Amino acid sequence: MKATLKPAAKPETRSLYEDVVQRVIDRITSDLDAALDLETLAQSANLSPFHFHRVFRGMVGETPLELTRRLRMERAAWSLAHTERAVTAIAFDAAYETHEAFTRAFRACYGTSPSGFRQDGRSRIELAAFSGVHYDPGGRPRLFTPCDTGGRTMDVTIKDMPARRLGTVRHIGPYTQVGEAFQRLGDIAGKAGLFSHPGAAMLALYHDDPEATPPDQLRSDAGIAVPDDLQLPAGLSEQRVAAGKYACAVHIGPYDRLPDTWARLMGEWLPASEHRLGPGASYEIYHNNPMNTPKERLETEICIPLG
């Protein structure tokens, strides 16, 4: 089954994801100094941490950590404007270990130093945020405005995707550097003649939530689809991608813009559709070779499992 879907929003489904995100925002705004247990929050929403991160970023325009940092900075600006607390104490409250680091970050946000902000008698503390969520000294709940950049009507195809056996090379580190694993994969696969097999698609799997996992510990895999009866050459590990129903969208353009397409799919299209995420991994399929394809013509298919 293959059908192109233009989703008509169903309030109960959209409300499901909005409620999940709003609960997290409420938890953040009610105690900016509390540690966020994102894995527990994701589990409470029946989402994997990886999927939870993408849904939240897509709907809010910021990750939970980015939201927390911005609100702490707005709180710092409010303290400068309305109290006589020492700048160093305000910096510590904003989770900066040194006065210098806080000053650099504050200047980047407000265009002046903390002392200059206080001396100028500024009162506006709100930084740009699409969600409309800002620091409130009274601690009042703030309802967020979901992002709407056209993702609700993006072209998404619902497909029954086959099971795939993959030969993979593991990458540990920032996801933006997974290309190193693809280079190793290409060398091994080329020598073993794997590209000559029918259906030898190149895929990437991402296993960890970059919000909750240190960059140097993120796990991803560069993979190539291989026949079930093929003996994998040395240097490749076996992984399998489950068959099932997936929502797929095609990204045209440079790989460094893929996060924006992910955000629209997960944070705008999915909540506006009648679908819910299912178990299993999301993945990317690369339909052309970056070695001989201009960046603006690179074609990447994003696939998310549906329940």
Describe what you observe in this structure.
There is one protein chain. The protein has about 300 residues and is an alpha+beta fold. Among the domains are: about 55 residues, Orthogonal Bundle (Arc Repressor Mutant, subunit A), CATH 1.10.10.60; about 150 residues, Regulatory factor, effector binding domain (Multidrug-efflux Transporter 1 Regulator Bmrr, Chain A). It is about 35% helix and about 20% strand. The protein contains 9 helices and 9 strands. It has a 9-stranded antiparallel β-sheet, covered by helices on one side. The protein is elongated. The N terminus is likely disordered.
End-to-end C-alpha gap: 15 Å
The H/E string reads EHHHHHHHEEHEEEEHEE
What do the pLDDT scores average to?
88
How much helix, percentage-wise, in residues? 25-40%
- How much is the radius of gyration in Å? 22 Å
CATH-assigned fold name of the domain at 156-305: Multidrug-efflux Transporter 1 Regulator Bmrr, Chain A
Strand percentage lies at: 15-25%
CATH superfamily of the domain at 156-305: Regulatory factor, effector binding domain
Biggest β-sheet strands, sense, barrel: 9 strands, antiparallel
Shape: elongated
Can you tell me the CATH architecture of the domain at 156-305? Alpha-Beta Barrel
Low-confidence stretches: 1-11
User: What is the topology, as strand order, of the major beta sheet?
Assistant: 1-2-7-9-8-4-5-3-6
Continuous helix count: 9
Give the helix/strand class.
Answer: alpha+beta
Number of strands: 9
So what's the CATH class of the domain at 156-305?
Answer: Alpha Beta
